[in-house]
Amino acid sequence: MKKLNVKAFxxxxxxxxxxxxLMLLNFPMPPFPNFLMIDFSDIPALIxxxxxxxxxGILVELFKNILDYFMTxxxxxxxxxxxxxxxAGILFVLPVYYIFNRLKSKKGMTIGLIxxxxxxxxxxxVLNYIVILPAYTFxxxxxxxxxxxxxTMVVTGILPFNIxxxxxxxxxxxxxxxxxxxxxxxxxxxxxKSAV
Length: 196
Fold this sequence. Notes:
single chain; Arp2/3 complex 21 kDa subunit ARPC3
């Protein structure tokens, strides 16, 4: 794992700020419920991970959510949505990073992005069913959802939404990566040299 130096922390801070701004530019996607929003804030975290390693990607995901929580707050009073966003981000970024690191090619990046989208969608479905949806109903003082209601919400809403969101982020990232792949590789090599 790459060690993070001062330059890495400055870059992580900048990428976290960009991720926070992208997080504000979210939008709903019909026919999914309005609380499911698409944004492209995972892209800076993915760039951080590719250049400085997985810890950098996790830190960008963490800092953007902390910034958003303190700047915009939460309907529940506690950061349930922000924790959910953080988990979704790392469940997307980490598989992409590890698969790409193993294959080191454009094909590897494509496989990583598709795998990251699927892993994130499946794991977030499980987490929503077990933890996140019950936490929302508890903190918002809504009546608890029955198991069949939660299953329906997960299968018809959350799972397909997260697959579409992951694939949209993947498509936008591939457009960026096709223009920046040489620069990202060079920066990654420089970060590796300066960490040694």
